[in-house]
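Provenance and format

Records in this collection were gathered into a single text stream. Each protein contributes a sequence line and a token line. The two records reproduced below are adjacent in the stream.
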Amino acid sequence: MVVRTQNPFLATVLCLTSTGTALAQRFEFGAGGGASFYSSKTISTTGANRASATAGFSPQASFTGYIGQDMYRVIGGEVRYAFQFNGLKLSSGSSKATFAGRSQSIHYDFLWHTKPAGYAKRAYLSIGAGVKQFSGTGEERAVQPLSEFAYLTRTSQVEPLIAIGGGIKYRTGRNRLIRLDVRDYLSPFPTQVISPAQGGGLGGWVHNFVVTIGFSVLTSAE
């Protein structure tokens, strides 16, 4: 089946989901929630009165859903979607500017387990890639604090995503699992959502550390 869409985020979602479905023979369906933490960036003004501010995202809640499968003895894969509330922020000394925001991501991960399927406890490492959409959702103002450094904007920006992490799966029943996941999502800093003022600079990659607890259902006993 060929799916055509002009939305790059939606196109990636459909592609990754279709790929995961085609590969899978036995599914693990799961969902979970937890906390999301970001690294920050320093932005500086130029000129004689040089000053600096910290730009980034506030720590908030994260929610996730995933579909996975064991493809080989200890190798598996899964499609994972994550939704996060990520408020935008700028701070310099006692001054602060905040703006409502959120993000959503979709990625495919390969999982390497320390034990084959069927064990009560399985630790694993994961690595994958996908896309992430950053969105500012607050109300823009004519005058924003710390605008000499950057502007917090009501816009969206899609960036590539690398996901690295690991976790532990605990079997709690014949077809039930509890999962603890820890991941580092790496993306280029969204300079359209947090837009540096003229002469300022924001670049490089931002780390998003996410810790979640998930609950899964297996389609069949192993």
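Adjacent record:
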Amino acid sequence: MTFVVTESCIRCKYTDCVDVCPVDAFREGANFLVIDPDDCIDCAVCVPECPVNAIYAEEDVPAKQQGFIALNAELAPQWKTITKTKAGLPDADEWAKVEHKLTELKR
């Protein structure tokens, strides 16, 4: 099992989760974070840190978000590791409650 970043993170990209990750499993894209399933040790310390509740255990990913399991695995090798908290995107608070944001994802 691994943890998965889901749609709520798109266009928010709060990075509170990355500071607590003991194995540096987070990867950073332009407007989204992913967790590298090969590096994740299933510790769950990142889950309560996410202000938009975007992180789930793989087995708990909501049905409508199942595609994010494969998306995290696909993008993780392509994106650089992020290990320190950065400011969220400038309009993150506006996007935090928006649903159906997959088309907004910048690869």
